[in-house]
Amino acid sequence: MIPTLQIFLIVSATLFCIGLLAALSRRHAIFILIGIEMMLAAANLNFIAFWRFGPQSQQPIGVMIAIFSIAIAAAEAAVGLAMVIAVYRHYRTTNVDQLDQLKG
Amino acid sequence: MNSAAFVVIAILTLAAAVAAATLQKLMHAALCFAVAFVGVAAFFFLLGAEFVGLVLVFVYIGAVAVLIVFTILLTRRDLEKDRSFNWSGVVIAIAVFGGLLWAICKTQMLSSSAPQIQPLTVKHIGAVLMTDYVWPLQCVGLLLTAALIGALVLVMEEKNSKSYRVE
Amino acid sequence: MTDFVDQIFIQAKQRLLLPLAHSPNWVVQIASSLVNIFALLAAFLTLFALISVLERKILGRMQNRYGPNRVGPFGLFQPVADGIKMLIKEDVVPARADKIVHFLAPILIAATAILALGVIPYGRNMTPFTIDGGILFFFAVGSTTELAVFMAGWGSNNKFSMLGAMRAIAQMFSYEIPLIITVLPVVMIVGSLTPDAIVAAQSGYSLGMVPHWFITTPWGAVGFILFFISGLVESNRTPFDVPEGESEIVAGHMTEYSGFKYATFFMAEYIGMFAISGLGVTLFLGGWHAPIRGLEVIPSYVWFFTKLSILLFVYIWIRGTLPRTRIDQIMNFAWKFMLPMAFTCILAAAVWHYAGRGLAAWFWSLGVIAAAYIALSILLDTRRKFAPRTYRFAE
Questions:
Q1: Are B93 and A24 within 8 A, CB to CB?
Q2: Among A46-50, B88-92, B106-110, C19-23, which stretch is predicted with the lowest mean pLDDT?
Q3: C144-172 tens-digit pLDDT
Q4: Radius of gyration of chain A (CA)
Q5: B contact test, residue of C25, C27, C136 with most B CBs within 10 A
Q6: Chains B and C touch (3+ CB pairs under 8 A)
């Protein structure tokens, strides 16, 4: 007997908030990306949990959304990390506080 | 028995996620990120979506985690620790968590136990992908191609730059 | 009688689990899994010990010398001596190495290699763990090896280790793509990702003589060759052992490991070899089926291990024959030749299926593969490589 839907949602909300913590409070660009990936994983967990506990578990809609979301997250991680490398080449820093030339 | 497995996996995942979010050494944080995703994949196995769990391990741990460690290597400058930590982020995260928890506990119909479903076979997922979801599949293919070309263009060295490899 | 010998291990396991017949379901499941795991470990660690000495003897014979022949009858107890040596060596860890990462890397590599062995069918009803997406599980744990190799290279705090690890990862993920795309035609034709179903689809014989293994089809033969080459690269074997070539980069990512940890790396490499060969046997060589209808009296696991041994012998043979390739040659080969040929295999498999799976279909799909091969040979014209060499920095 696996636990109820509420417990799964609480766990995924916790994972989401930990990802949010990583994305908001770290100043290194790569950590922000790690936080974003964790938030996406938490959202996927939500979708799968709702698919499993939902009334119509035969239609794998939640599973499909999770699969596409993983593919899109991989693409976004690749492009994001490429941007971090490109920015590093020009400014020699990955601290996002110092990337403020467009300000003002 | 499943509840015991759930508790173990939940502790593993959340501990690894907290470690990934707060560790100062970059490499350790990246490796804890991989462990957190092993935990999420274990959750998917527990929920009966084994295909998604395997795809998660394959894509995130086999590819995204390797990308992240490579990027950490290539952008190092002999600075292995990230010493800055913005505490207002913690406040916002706790506020969001409080809001989500309130929303979850307020909802009425969520305390039911899991219905018995037939195991979801890969064949069924494949059939659904090719019939109902064929257009999203093609769009994701295009998106991945665009991301591939875009990432390559972003990191290609310009031909007339005088930058020598420093690392 | 043949059925009894064929299922003898299954009967032994059920006899062993008989005292637990009245326990709750989960106890029986865990006990059954534990028995499977111990049997698997026993079989493959013995095979690893045997292959490590047989490789040295076969290489020795190919180089016109005896291999190790002092320790036991024909030197077959050499692994015992090697094991004792590895265990009593001092474990040297660099002072500024990252202790946790340095310690965990060999464990992770060995764990992923052994995990991959769990989904291969070794005989009739003898798959340790049946997972619905078994092939995907195999590749998922295989791709985790790259992270472990990186951990080994980085945790040693050594520039050579780091370079070796980066080369190893570049090589491994370049060849993972042809490896997986070569498996796609098989999955397409069978319609399932479960290794049991793939083996069951290769049963049956044409004319009582020719087995329905996928290697007898043109796309299967080419696919098997591409799969085999990718397997060579994935296990870092010669001619693709740039990551661990002794004359180039000391021992690559394994430089700073001594004693038991080095033995673990060594074991993980060999078990990775067994896993890839086992998968090759399952996908292309018919798994545990016999080649001719008359030889079906021989038990299924004997056939599996015979085919596995033949593949391992070819691995050792290639090691004794070919020199090492350069890293840029390896990458060129992967991206410019193997990837297009792997895509052609998918096309050829589709042509074979829709042309009726008979003799005419055989020639049609062979034509597709030949056309692609000829086109690639013309496009990848290598004559331009032999121009006079220009130097960027050394003028």
A1: yes
A2: B106-110
A3: 888 898 888 888 888 878 888 888 888 88
A4: 17
A5: C136
A6: yes
What ipTM is given for this predicted complex?
0.89
AA identity, residue C98: D
Is the pLDDT reported for residue B166 higher than 50? no
Q: Which residue of B has its CA nearest to A84?
A: B71
| Cα(C33)–Cα(C12) distance, integer angstroms | 14
User: pLDDT > 70: what percent of chain C?
Assistant: 96
Does the residue A65 lie in any domain?
Answer: yes
Residue A36, domain extent: 28-94
What is the sign of the dihedral through the CA atoms of C184, C37, B52 and B66? negative
CA B53 from centroid of its chain's CA atoms:
11
- Return the structure tokens found at C299: 């038990």
What is the mean pLDDT of the segment spanning C369-380?
A: 88
Is A2 a member of any domain? no
The band of B141, judged by pLDDT with boundaries at 50, 70 and 90, is: very high
Q: What is the pLDDT of residue A57?
A: 61
Angle, helix C218-234 to helix C159-190, in steps of 10 degrees: 160
Spell out the long-range contacts of C377-385 with Cβ–Cβ below 8 A and sequence spacing 24 or more.
C380/C336, C380/C337
Alpha carbon of B121: minimum distance to chain A alpha carbons (Å): 10
- Rounded CA-CA distance C337/C34 in Å is 43
CA separation for the pair C155, B69 (Å, rounded):
12
pLDDT at position A32 over 50: yes
Q: What is the DSSP string of A2-50?
A: PPPHHHHHHHHHHHHHHHHHHHHHB-BHHHHHHHHHHHHHHHHHHHHHH
Rounded to 5 degrees, what angle do the CA atoms C382, C230, C136 make?
140
B4 touches chain A (CB under 8 A): no
| N-to-C CA span, chain B | 51
How far apart (Å, rounded) are the C-alpha atoms in residues C78 and B39? 41
Classify C210 as helix, strand or coil. Answer: strand
Is residue A51 within 8 A of residue A63, CB to CB? The reply is yes
At residue C199, the pLDDT reads: 92
Q: pLDDT tens digit string along C77-129?
A: 888 998 898 888 888 888 887 888 888 999 999 999 999 999 999 988 888 88
Helix (H) or strand (E) holding C205: strand C205-206
A83, part of any domain: yes
CB C133 within 8 A of CB C295: no
Contact between C293 and C205 (Cβ < 8 Å): yes
Most B CBs within 10 Å: which of C137, C149, C189, as the mutation test of the B interface? C137
pLDDT at B80: 57
When divided into structural domains, chain A yields a total of: 1
Q: Is residue A9 part of a domain?
A: no
Which of B1, B27, B50 has its CB closest to that of C154? B27
Q: Virtual CA dihedral for B122, B127, B130, B131, nearest 10 degrees?
A: -150
Interface present between B and A (3 or more CB pairs within 8 Å): yes
d(CA C331, CA C334): 5
Yes or no, beta carbons of A11 and B13 under 8 Å apart = yes
Which one is predicted more confidently, B4 or C244? B4
Q: Do B51 and A63 touch (CB under 8 A)?
A: yes
CA–CA dist A74, C258 (Å, integer): 37
